[in-house]
Amino acid sequence: MKPHETPLFHHNNVAVKMEALQPGGSHKARAARRMIREALVAGHLSKGGGRRIIEKSGGNLGVGLAFEAQRHGIAVDLVIGLSFSPLKRRLCQHFGANLIGENLLRAGFTPKQAITHLMKQDPDRWFFTDQFINPANLNAHLEETGPELVRQVAAIRQPGQGIILVKGAGTGASFEGISRCLRDAFGAVRCELVVPSGCDIAANVFVDHPLEGFAVGVRPPFLDLGYINAVHQIAPDVAMEGQAAMARHIGFFPGMTSGANYAAALSAAARHPNALIVTLAYDSGESYIRAAADPAPPTPQPAHV
To answer: What residues does the Tryptophan synthase beta chain-like PALP domain cover (predicted)?
Structure first.
């Protein structure tokens, strides 16, 4: 297996790409690596330099950025919405990120507004990775995740077997990158989108929900909704049932969004028993449990080499 390549586990006709096994514990590690690498090449960041990364993240991308950036001597400041899990916030700190802007958030700023405000005050202090517009986010999946998955699917797919991709979307980069690669390799691929119950991404309808990273309040900028064949609306209790089912079926307890993916994949498998259903496990549910028991981490210091 190549460095950072993750395995494909499967149960009956459901295959799960185990992105939770990336360094930093989630699929966002790929985007973090790619965004930092491209920023270094472009001169927006430098190894051991004083310019810091700033990003708005509910957890996984923040962890990925913190892990990757410290390898280059670069500090990371995160603005995390107040509604996001305090457990993931603490996990970001354990990986070395600084949490900033809370006073602005409590004053009514959105995370994006807080970043804009901070960067206006000191524009040379930060490089905003901005996962919602940064093409490196999509490129990571077009050039890494997608081709890996194509090779792995080809190894287990039966001749003539149809393929159905079932997963949620935040920025839409992983869905778009993976689906393009699968369609290029295998032709017609059915794509089914997982959303929290009550959300309608096409209609820009969003509600409060606990599936962090899905339906984040904006239409996924990288996702072409034109090829979505079906939408699964997944309630929190169904997502938790999916977590338990994945634990029983493949021996891995995932995070809640991955549980939603798996629940939707099982539903698709029941409706299409002859197809190969492909989904992702983004992160581990155990990370949330561990964070709850951990002592508060020390305040990270500015990165240095």
So the answer is: 6-280
